[in-house]
Fold these 3 entries.
Entry 1:
Amino acid sequence: MTHTDHAHSDSKNVLCTEPVLTPDTVHRTLSITSPWPPIVHLGIYIFLTSCITITVFGNLGIIISISHFKELHSPTNFLILSMAATDFFLGVLIMPCSMVRSVERCWYFGKLFCKLHYSFDLMLSVISIFHLCSIAVDRFYAVCDPLHYPIKITTAFIKKIIFICWSVPAIFSFGVVITNSHVSGIVGYESLVECFNLCPITFNKLWSVIMFFACFFIPGSVMVIIYIQIFIVSQRHANILKQVTENMKNNITSQISKQKDRKAAKTLGIVMGVFITCWMPVFITILVDPFLNFSTPEVLFDALNWLGYINSTCNPLIYGFFYSWFRKALRYIIFGKIFEPDSSLANLS
């Protein structure tokens, strides 16, 4: 999700009623497209290209691993596979064009592609968040109700969840952007598209509130509550196991239990920390900016937008590299062993 280049707060009275570039328009355009010296341009390009590379190849590694190895064909991993596909498409289709727009402060790809870009941008970002929430629900049943988990969380059920995670954001995103309802009532919006050759995307007051609550606050609150419950139940299970092992005077098993508990707590902390760090700033800005007359500095909003993108960069690190099966699968991929006969039957546990 991206925000308008906030020059429109200074150009509300600039309407493209005449096809003439006035000196004032030229000055504004130049000030927008040339904000940094070349060395800064290069540094930002290198950093953002690195983020895109990690996003694309990290998530591609997860896609290939889960698709190829039969041992990984489980309901939970299918959710992770779907989320990895979402983040992969974000890295391939959205982030490169957004990088050019962010660095050059200009949109070179035309008005029609601007709409398509934003529609897919919004859709994939929301899909990624919905997947994070769905994975939290899956882990909740696995930890808190393990006896009924295989019955409730089946492959057929996960396919329905994945369909919802993709279809609802798609309908929402394309519906909002195509109808232009997200910019209804914003004076000067079209002038930035037509006169300044930009792709200025923003939300009015109504849609900023809807976006904040529907796409961040509600899913985020569900995730926080679920992971707190998971942590509490994990602690309870660890304490019970500790008492059992103490009665059996098995200090080794007790130590292993403590290590697993610390690892689980650390993983949950990283999951929530990364999600909140990446998404909260940009969604709060989306919420308050229309009520502040779009006064948020353009560079700040752009940086927060990329912080949200970076959540897709971190996802393969969190849900992939934290699992031993992914590290083993990655070695198979890197060394070309997946092309060997019966490699799909390899033991990754």
Entry 2:
Amino acid sequence: MTESSTDLASRTPRSSGVQSVARAAALLGAVVDSPSGGATLTELSKLTGLNVSTVHRLLGTLCAEGLLCRSREGDRFQPGPVLLRLGRRSLASTGLPEVTAVLKELADATGETASIGMRRGDRVLVLVSVQSEQPLRYLGEPGVSVPLTRTAMGVALLAFDTPSPPQRTPGERRGGDEQAGPDPTEDAEDAEDAEKWSWHVRLLAAQFRGYAVLDGADGSGLRGLAAPVDSGSPYIQLAVDIQGPAGRMTDDRLDALGARVVAAADSLRGLPVALALGQL
């Protein structure tokens, strides 16, 4: 039983008209959420907690209005043409079809898998991917959450959103006491300084180029290029990237590939995708 359908059906309405609407909405939700290509009268009664006679009456009205229809066999109720049309228009208003089209164009133009991701804390959630048609390719993993520092999208978001790390000369001791004796933590601090400096340079390079480049640190041989997307919302940060074998995405191709990625990110600017993607 879907919680939303049950809650909706069991609400205490103010009038019989509101009650009918709530019950009809519960039935529509149960049909849409059914994993088996529709639901029978008995199943819908159980799912919504409504008696069979009430469900039968409401189903008749919903079918007459085109919101639901019967399966070819006649024993199951499925989304009707009006409900499907509403769904298509709702999807179109989010900009999601445009996102897929932009990623497909980017994948075709570069020959590499194109993805869009959203920042969540210190990680990036991959939302949509369009695979390359190359035999050797990055497969793309929508739904996977990756640390910001392990993906080109994360580097792009950091470079264009977060202030650069504070600069400190490698080897400079904390506290500024250059005359102090040997510090047992000096090696660890120097290693930390070197890492910070490396990231500082990487973020500056991304800002200079207009896109971020990151090679896989796990020996995968992958290389990623990414650019941030102006989502129109300060609370939802998006980025577009392409990923593929480093041997194909060679240094001499970076500017051309990066220009394609930046153009794809720019083309998504202003589309109403932020809210839709933010709900995934």
Entry 3:
Amino acid sequence: MARSALTRDEVLDAAASLVREHGPDALTMRRLAAELSTAVTSIYWHVGNRESLLDALVARTVADLGTIRPRGATPAERMVSVARALRRALRERPHLVAMVHERGLTERMFLPAQRALVHEAHAAGLRGAHAARAVRALQFQVVGYVLVERNRERAPVQSPAEEELWRGEDAGSDGPLARALAAPVDTERLFVDSVRALVDGLLGGAPGNTGEATPGDTGDGDVGRGPYSQ
């Protein structure tokens, strides 16, 4: 029996769930209607055709990444928190993020996180080109890390695996090192360690924080120019 009450948000929630779990190809109007126990005509009434539905999902994904809020007592802690939240958001919705990219809205999607990082860079005393480099470095770190994670997860089973290669090795008499490399990778801890080290270097290594541009930089106005910036 078709349900009598249905909202646009419920349709988008169900559609997003299908895409997250099975990819965009699994999203058909008939399958979505079945998931919601409603008629196909009801889906069309709420969101239009499939292309309009995909556009709505893209817009919602862009909006979702705009909800990232820094947390922590210091600019450094808050910058790390933004990086962690961005990584989590990208990993939770890879198919939706791919749809955003295909529609040429990648820069728009990353803009809220950029703005949050700019705010914290300013709070830490960075200005101009130094602040721009900090924002870009963190953004590239997050995106690059997520891509590496995805490639590792989708790679065929390795034989011998990394753990097997290091098992029994002494790594130059450094037994603890060999044992650590033979253990499974804690990707969350590795990410946080790398981002913290990057943030510490960015905030502590800016010479004078004068904001003077170096070749290839254009100062404050250049924060929005780059592969993942607007």
